[in-house]
Amino acid sequence: MQQPDRGQYKKSPIVDLFLRSCLGKLIIIAVITGIILLIAKFTVPSTGKMQQEMNDDIKQCIEECQAKDADASDDLVRNAMSIFTHSDSIADDGSMDTFHKHNRIEYYRHTFYHTAYLFNNVIPNGKRVGIGIFGVVIPTLDYKDFIMRMAPMRKDYNQRIIKNEFSIDVDPEQDPDFGDTYNTYQ
Prior knowledge:
6 helices; 4 strands
């Protein structure tokens, strides 16, 4: 008996068989991942670049967030835009000095990326506020995590923290008890 389709099927080359096999696909994925990791290793930002970019991003965050209360979407947009922008070269009003007085940023270099952590009295274990990968520093700053001023909450031992009695007719500069409370909570 003769088959009518004899000779129409060709044998596939070994390369095509390899690319279609599961082992071939795994090897291709491993090679691509290795190339990406190699590029990431050689493009990790230096500690100096991380410090410079994070200081710039912190300055932008302080300038933008002092006047308004930001929510998560505002933080996301501000952090994304601060990758591409730099803070104004206006004379500093001392806000960065205040920031560095009460907060500390530490930088850690890893094999494929660089991280920045914020430490202060509220966050003693630290919170990641930036990551550097592929030569780009990506901030994850939140103004609510910064300590920008510190004042005593009480005048004497065992005094209530928040006073409910305020006199509207009294000038804050004339009444020392009202003035201290007024200045503490502004």
